[in-house]
Amino acid sequence: MKTNPRFRLFPMPLHSLLLLLVWLLLNNTIAPGHLVLGTFLAIIIPLITSGMQYPQPSFHKPFTILRYLLMVLGDIVVANFEVALLVIGPAKRLNPAFIAIPLDIEHELPITILASTVSLTPGTVSTEISEDKKWLHVHVLNLTDKEELIALIKHRYERPLMEIFQC
Length: 167
Fold this sequence. Notes:
Layout: H1 13-27, H2 32-49, H3 62-88, E1 97-102, H4 108-120, E2 124-129, E3 135-140, H5 146-165
Antiparallel strand pairs: 1-3, 2-3
Helix pairs in contact: 1-2, 3-5, 4-5
């Protein structure tokens, strides 16, 4: 990724500013020594890490993003109650299992968001993404219907992410 020549010292100016602010807030002072050290770190860290950036797909459809966030938040609340009822009940009602969900998403960022969404929802945990990025492996606390759960995750989470990232 090429950087603008006038920003060669600051390849990620917003990151640099954020680093400086966080440094000063963590130390709770604007003493000259902390200003100098914070500025040094705010320049050096982005310079060192700027080569590690991978181009990612951009966000599209802000209303879809908002709808997705609200839906996930609602799913987290509902799943908390469902898991609480499962945990309070007899252990023999539980049917834990590992499943593999085929992925249609190809970019790393949307796959990471999908895996994080699955992990945030109580009762499911993303355990691994296959090396070829074609499968998301998930542990389920109580599996009743494998195909139904796969269809739910693909329809409820993966499809909106594909729309958001245009992939």
